[in-house]
Amino acid sequence: MKRLLLFLCATFVLVSCQGNVGRKLAAGGSQDSARAANFDKTYPIVDSLLRVMTLDEKIGQLVLYTSDWDVTGPSIRDGYVDDIRAGRCGNIFNAYTAEYTRKLQEIAVNETRLGIPLLFGYDVIHGFRTIFPINLGISASWDPELIQESARIAAREAAAAGLHWTYSPMCDISVEPRWGRISEGAGEDAFLGSAISRAMVYGYQGSDLEDPMTIAACVKHFAAYGAPQAGRDYNTVDMSERWLREFYLPPYKAAVDAGAQTVMASFNELDGIPATANAHLLTEILRDEWGFDGFVVSDYTGIMEMINHGTSLDLKDASVQALKAGNDMDMQSGGYSEHLKKAVEEGLVSQKTIDEAVRRVLTVKARLGLFDDPYRYCDPEREKAETMTAENLATAKKLAEESCVLLKNDNDCLPLAKGGRVAVIGPLAESADDLLGSWRGAGQVEGVKNIKEAIADYATVVYAKGCELSGSDRSGFAQAVAAARGANAVVMVLGESCDWSGEAASRTSIRLPEIQTELLKAIVNTGKPVTLVLLNGRPLDISEESGLASSILEAWFPGTMGAEAVASLLFGDASPSGRLSVTFPRNIGQVPIYHYAKMTGRPYVHPGAKFESRYLDCENEPLYPFGYGLTYTTFSYSKPTLSATEFGPKGSLSATVTVTNTGARPGTETVQMYIRDLVGSVTRPVRQLKGFERVSLAPGESRQVSFEITPELISFWRRDLTFGPEAGDFQLFIGADAACNDPVTFSYTDR
Ligand code: NOJ
Predict the structure, then answer these.
(1) Are residues 574 and 650 in the same domain?
(2) 299: annotated active-site residue
(3) Strand-by-strand arrangement of the 165-166 sheet
(4) Which tens digit of pLDDT belongs to each residue from 465-484?
(5) Can you list the positions of beta strands (E) in 131-199?
(6) Which residue numbers in the chain have pLDDT < 70?
(7) Of 534, 565, 590, which one is at a domain's C-terminal end?
(8) Are residues 645 and 567 in the same domain?
(9) Which pTM value belongs to this model?
(10) Pair 559, 478 in one domain
(11) Is residue 72 in contact with ligand 1, taking CB distance under 6 Å?
(12) Is 233 in the pocket of ligand 1 (CB under 6 A)?
């Protein structure tokens, strides 16, 4: 039997060598070149295999089961090794290490008739062994280049542990802080989100997917999973096609354009149809409009869940619907395995549909080079050499530093003086585990410093826990107060446990548990300046705490090197440069609140007016706007200048601003450009992020920053649902966050 595969492989190698030119993805290059290079090669081995495969063997390639190494869903199906051996399962997730994946691969290669290699997937979400900050944190760096580097490192570590495929990037835009999975995404904005998902795909897949240091990306969760009603995970999603296309789809598309090989259908329904079997999403938009030619995988038991959704009679019906809609691979439902053969025999699904799905799966395996050498990812020596190297850890620290957002710094309370006596207080100060956040891959807590320990590298620490994360036990307050009294400065580490966000971790309150706020009050009452370090996986309502603490550093869950990063920021070895990628509300009642809101017919412009769009008990503005963040210096902006005040379909104009570091320390500013289309065929946001650039400036230094405004940049989904620009006037704002003001005006003409 093996001779058959050997013969097929020899044919493949010959032809693949001829086609090697032009396979390169442009790392960070233009979307078009990346895409063209990745998709232009054919793999004769795929045709050869399809000609000889039985229906059972074909269906096996459409099946994905979890191993019993890790639990990322509701149930474990026993017997995956037998399934591999019987050719019933061509893909495995949640199994890793070079040694174990080799063992399973040997079963597939040596004990099945055709020896088709397994594909190994895993949730490498913000790192594999070296854990970077959670994705919401990473996005606050506004640094796609460094994010790409973090994904490259994650890919190298994962690939060295036998993995071929990560379930990342998560491209779900969300304005819903109750939803625990907001922690896994890039925040509220499609423009920033697109830059980040593109960077992550380039990072994972590199310039050549056949390079065994790279892994295939999976764009998820397609689509609009980030908009569950009431923020409850897996809940109903419903929105207009226009809203979907303008504010939710761009990051998925950017990842597909960057050459992502796979897409995961989301759990939610959209317009009454579960995404798992939503042909509008999986076929019309993804394949017909965007030209995606990789494969689509369901989410965990997503096909089975269509029975609960109430759109399928049973698992067979669900399987038929999903496959026909464009869902090629069944993760964990067992539906394809159990029912597709019968469905073909009964004429419910055509052989052609099966063949197309199998072709897509085999093509991704071929692109990964698995038919050249199924064990190319299973090298224990490489695994040792690649895992948690000093370089990987240094990048993790840098990205953690860039992810932290300084929300407040009264009287330049930070940075703290080195060598003093610092009281470190709070239920998260001694936790290394929480630093890693949810979806921590194969990250291990052993050897990870906690924040108390990292501060001890800079100062004498007096530690008091004070209270638990929640509950009502105040017995530790007195000791914490005493610690504060005896110190020069206080650092409190408060927030959420790492499992209060992530999958199936929605909250109805986005406040700190009362006990933590009470502890903060007790410590603030000592009169000592209090720095609050927050660990959390969502935008929180910290209206009360922001009035109490002297300074606040939002550190999210910052990863393996998070404690060191936080300490280096607190003591000024590094300066904060993170900017919020999501709006922080004043309270849960303002949610959803985001910077690209519409004007409404009754905008609130007359203070105190009754019949205008506002609340009786709260202002409209958020506590901290999108894009906000401080550092240890200050910046001034000149008014933007334009290269012209008008442009047309073949033209563009540039907007330039001079940014000056007006403080006494070096610092990094993220210069942001927002545009408002004043009149459209449909209502337009009051402003939309359309450009950003990080600039590092020495004290007194100035730099010009320019952005190009093209017809594409001002395009949107017009009244007739075509995408393009409309003639008219626009306001352009450049500044430090979404609340920046003093716009200049330009016009677009369609001549
Ligand atoms: C369910 C999650 O929604 C998805 O993000 C993840 O990739 C799969 N489980 C596999 O663990």
Answers:
(1) no
(2) yes
(3) 165-166, 119-122, 91-93, 63-66, 330-331
(4) 999 999 999 999 999 999 99
(5) 165-166
(6) 1-40, 75-76
(7) 590
(8) no
(9) 0.95
(10) yes
(11) yes
(12) no
